[in-house]
Amino acid sequence: MGDAKGAFVNVITWASNAKEYNCNADLVLRKLGLYILDVENAEPVSLRRKKAVFDEEIEEMIARAQDNPNAIIYSTFHTWDRDTA
Questions:
Q1: Can you name the residues that pair with 13 across neighbouring β-strands?
Q2: pLDDT tens across 36-81, in order?
Q3: CA 41 to CA 70: how far, in whole Å?
Q4: If residue 4 lies in a helix (H) or strand (E), which one and from where to where?
Q5: Residue 35 and residue 26 in contact, taking contact as beta carbons nearer than 8 Å
Q6: Contact (Cβ atoms closer than 8 angstroms) between residue 61 and residue 75
Q7: Are 77 and 1 in contact (CB under 8 A)?
Q8: Other Cβ atoms closer than 10 A to 43
Q9: Which of 38, 52, 50, 49 is nearest to 7 (CA)?
Q10: What is the pLDDT of residue 82?
Q11: DSSP assignment string, 9-60
């Protein structure tokens, strides 16, 4: 991640509740030497589909995870620069 201050990434995983989702996301990100600062708008795909259209990258992640209950899939990391103060 170089000099990035942080990053945003989408994570698709099977979970029965928000706590399980956070644990799964944390598991894969810690293996990358990263940690979760915040989770925004975690919800089941079926609910999100009712109010949003997914881009191609997210649709591919959903398809990969659909038949694998152990899947924890993350998208492209979108980083931002460090403060220069």
A1: 72
A2: 988 988 999 999 999 999 999 999 999 999 999 999 999 988 888 7
A3: 21
A4: strand 4-8
A5: yes
A6: yes
A7: yes
A8: 11
A9: 38
A10: 63
A11: --EEE--SSHHHHHHHHHHHHHHTT---S---S---HHHHTTT----HHHHH
